[in-house]
Design a protein that fits this description.
The protein is 36% helix and 21% strand. By secondary structure, the protein is an alpha+beta fold. It folds into two domains: 298 residues, Zn peptidases (Aminopeptidase), CATH 3.40.630.10; 126 residues, Alpha-Beta Plaits. The strands form six sheets. Strands 1-4-8-5-9-19 form a six-stranded mixed β-sheet, with helices on both faces. The protein has a four-stranded antiparallel β-sheet with strand order 13-15-11-16. A three-stranded antiparallel β-sheet has the order 6-7-20. Helix 3 runs antiparallel to helix 16 and helix 14 packs across helix 16. The radius of gyration is 26 Å and the shape is globular. It starts with a helix and ends with a helix. Bound molecules: manganese (II) ion (MN) (2 copies). One manganese (II) ion (MN) binds next to loops.
């Protein structure tokens, strides 16, 4: 018994504690975790749903609460007014203020600017939430509530990290750029970035977006995102909808043309059939392949979660590469087609097919637009249909790819090692992150996405959550990142 006690006390003595447990910065964060959760509770309770005009005052209130907290922990804040938003013709509602804040202004130190948002997606208990979405509820070491992961929890973790590091010494200048309209398209944000380029942003060395999940339980650093070229194919065959009893067998049907055109975009294995579409895709390097090896990603989990019986690719590397770094085409819908239940025998006069191509570096939207139009026009011409066909690209959002050897990436990887004792997953987003590309283009600065969300947080869905682990260890991650950045 005595022997066991000796062993236990030996293991608990400071010499045997891991460096993480010994770290006074981390101890400070652990000691305040209760307070951090309490603050998240207060912030989640504010219904800052930017999509609902009746809640716009709540979004502004959320921005003010955030401002007050930044002031309280020693930051300087400028609130930028964006004026009104024309919500619908003749109806104007105020846009929420944008926060520009800073901690420290020492020219000898590097300056990092973090971006995040305080607005949330809509949420109602009736949507199928198990708890009130605006009452933070702790269950199984998870914190449920709207905005816990997207993005109040992540911004708060960052603020708590700044506050904690300041208790010791803040070795970098920190700036914050926090908005309240992200979930509805970041109204007015590009304009501010342009306007503040030579003032607020002029001394910024690095930009970090704190609004992103990990791929697994291991921390992930996001270094790229796909773009999106969204197309409409409009086919018109008649002045009005026709009856298939009266016209079936007598007309060239618009819908048949459209279905044919949508059908020739890709083969059954997802390979895009548009000539030249793969020409500008960057080749996969050996170094890049290495990055995929240690990613924790289970195809079976993805199958279970999605209910898909077989994917287009059977290995982790192949599947993730096709999600992140190869282009894909998806067919989204047909406007004007009969889509109700029942058996309407209509021949639609005009139909608009909608599809998009997730394009990747170095594909250019303007080139993709030409390739798609040329291909569809030639395929349509082969059919010799007398109908009118028109292809338009309605969105041309650019892909984004960062340089992973930029100092902030090295600092983030060091921080992950320090807090979690693992190598960070280097990941990309299959979707589009316009803000990353915008920061890079307008400011010419290095951009990185360092979030702390979990892969199953359900950010826009019911029962959104962040785990206590991600929230508190994520706070340590941001805190370590600030320290590591100074020593790169
Ligand atoms: Mn978000
Ligand atoms: Mn979101």
């Amino acid at each position: 018994m005595l022997f066991i006690l000796c062993i236990v006390s030996l293991l608990l003595s400071p010499a045997f504690l891991s460096p993480v447990q010994n770290d006074p910065l981390f101890k400070h964060i652990d000691d305040h975790s209760h307070e951090y959760i309490q603050r998240l509770k207060e912030w989640v309770a504010i219904e800052s749903d930017s999509s609902d005009p009746s809640k716009r005052d709540q979004v502004e209130h959320m921005m003010q609460v955030t401002k007050d907290y930044i002031l309280k922990i020693g930051g300087k804040v400028e609130m930028v007014e964006l004026g009104d938003q024309e919500y619908s013709p003749g109806v104007k509602i105020p846009l929420p203020s944008v926060i520009l804040a800073e901690f420290g202004n020492d020219k000898t130190k590097p300056t990092v600017c973090f971006y995040g948002h305080m607005d949330v997606q809509p949420a109602k208990k009736d949507d199928g939430w198990e708890t009130d979405p605006y009452v933070l509820t702790e269950k199984d070491s998870k914190l449920f509530g709207r905005g816990t992961s997207d993005d109040k929890g992540q911004v708060l973790a960052l603020l708590h990290a700044v506050e904690s590091v300041m208790k010791f010494d803040l070795p970098v200048n920190v700036k914050l750029f926090i908005e309240g309209m992200e979930e509805v398209g970041s109204n007015g944000l590009e304009k501010i970035v342009e306007e503040k380029k030579d003032t607020f942003f002029s001394n910024v060395d690095y930009i970090v977006v704190t609004d992103t999940p990990w791929l697994s339980t291991k921390p992930g650093i996001t270094y790229g995102a796909r773009g999106n070229c969204y197309f409409f194919i409009e086919v018109e065959g008649a002045r009005r909808d026709l009856h298939s009893g009266g016209f079936g067998g007598t007309v060239y049907e618009a819908m048949s043309d459209l279905v044919y055109l949508l059908g020739v975009l890709a083969d059954v294995n997802g390979k895009i059939l548009i000539p030249g579409i793969y020409d500008d895709v960057l080749p996969v390097t050996e170094q890049e392949k290495e990055l995929y090896k240690d990613l924790i990603f289970d195809l079976k989990d993805m199958q279970r979660d999605s209910g898909v019986s077989k994917f287009l690719h059977s290995t982790k590397g192949d599947l993730l590469m096709h999600r992140w770094r190869f282009p894909s085409v998806s067919i989204h819908g047909i406007e004007g087609a009969f889509s109700g239940s029942g058996t309407k025998t209509v021949i639609p006069a005009k139909v608009i097919g909608k599809f998009s191509i997730r394009q990747v570096p170095k594909m250019k939207p303007s080139v993709v637009e030409k390739q798609v139009s040329n291909y569809l026009e030639s395929k349509f011409a082969e059919r010799k249909s007398p109908n009118k066909m028109k292809v338009t690209m309605v969105i041309g959002a650019q892909p984004w790819l960062a340089n992973m050897s930029d100092p902030q990436y090295l600092a983030a990887r060091n921080a992950v090692r320090r807090v979690f004792n693992v190598e960070a997953d280097m990941i990309r987003a299959g979707g589009t992150i316009p803000i990353a590309k915008n920061f890079e283009d307008v400011l010419g600065k290095s951009v990185m996405l360092l979030g702390i969300g979990g892969p199953d947080d359900a950010p826009h869905g019911q029962n959104e959550k962040i785990s206590m682990y991600n929230y508190i260890e994520g706070t340590k991650l941001y805190a370590s990142f600030l320290q590591e950045l100074a020593s790169i």
